[in-house]
Amino acid sequence: MNISIQLAPKNKRGLLLANPVMTASGTFGYCLEYSQLFDVQKLGAIVCKGTTLNPKEGNPQPRIAETPCGMLNSPGFQNIGVKALIKEKAPVWANWRVPVIVNITGDTVEDFARLAGELDGVAGVSGLELNISCPNIKHGGLAFGTDPKAAAGVTAAVKSATSLPVLVKLTPNTDDIARIARAVAEAGADALTVINTLRGMAIDIARRRPLLANIVGGLSGPAIKPVALYMVYEVAKAVDVPVIGCGGITTGSDAIEFIMAGASAVQVGTATLVSPSSALDILEGIEEFMKKEGIKNIAEIIGTA
Ligand SMILES: Cc1cc2nc3c(=O)[nH]c(=O)nc-3n(C[C@H](O)[C@H](O)[C@H](O)COP(=O)(O)O)c2cc1C
Question: Can you tell me which atom of ligand 1 is nearest the CA of 77?
């Protein structure tokens, strides 16, 4: 059975995954903790926590709220910064066979380009994932990811700063995700991750105040699966680069749905917070389905819906 996937066919370095199951950024830390719990080398790829140029303490507490079939989070990019990541985490990843992709974010195009430059050529880093859901400070705070020109601009700037494969992670908080997808694919994105969290809020009725200190948070988990699935379907029709499905995937059947909608790979986020080895269980579920259906190569079912 062939379940390997080339996620960056247009990139000279390529990004070959032994299987299509990846972890989603922000839900798997730097993976070092999880490597003590189970064999993380069996995963297709690992995407680490969102990383910025300088360390960040993140938003004030509370940052997390449970919702029906999901959760709201607003960590505010708490992270150790790119220099510490290069010094402390990458050397460990360099000894692993599973590729590690660094999720990066910034307030300006220059931040993204500098991060890409610093990570270029670092052993243990196999690719970058751009989180463009953040506000573009230089353009009045409108998220990069909701403006096709800004999204293409940041993609092009990163591509010229690195030879690493570049995944661009799209936000669902836009009225036309296919338009953004086309713009970043034309600007050179090697693959697209679809989707990040949806904006939402919860209210603590005893205090009569928003539950999250940041007021707004990102909704994730099974609640967003139908939205994510439709967006993958729309984006896969619009671009000719691989699409990575993400949003509410908790079982092998969920993953198969995303693959049939057009995803070449999937990312598992919130499910990992419920059960740490979810991604591996999902991989097993994919393999069982393929066995049962007599599918020899996963490529046979990509986009069949
Ligand atoms: C606690 C938490 C932290 C997250 N941090 C990031 C992040 O730093 N960068 C990013 O691009 N996405 C981040 N995400 C979004 C996830 O990677 C994923 O896109 C989203 O949660 C939808 O997938 P899921 O429903 O499987 O969780 C975070 C999600 C959660 C729940």
Answer: 8
The answer to whether 114 and 82 are in contact (CB under 8 A) is: no
Evaluate if residue 302 carries a pLDDT over 90.
Answer: yes
Query: Closest Cα to residue 264, out of 14, 19, 1, 2?
Result: 19
Cα 197 to chain centroid distance, Å, stands at 10
Partners of 276 in the beta sheet? Answer: none
133's tokens: 């859901």
> Ligand 1 pocket: which residues have CB below 6 Å?
24-27, 49-50, 73, 75, 103, 131, 169, 196-197, 220-221, 224, 246-249, 268-271
Three-class secondary structure of residue 168 per DSSP: strand
Tokens (6 digits) for 171: 């936000």
Per residue in 248-259, pLDDT tens?
999 999 999 999
246 is catalytic: no
| Average pLDDT of every residue of the chain | 95
> How far, in Å, is the centroid of ligand 1 from the Cα of 66?
14
Which atom from ligand 1 is nearest to the alpha carbon of 270? 27
- Beta pairing partners, 67: 70
- Closest residue by Cα to atom 23, ligand 1, is 247
Torsion of CA 140, 212, 28, 19, to 10 degrees: -70
Q: Which atom of ligand 1 is nearest to the CA of 133?
A: 11
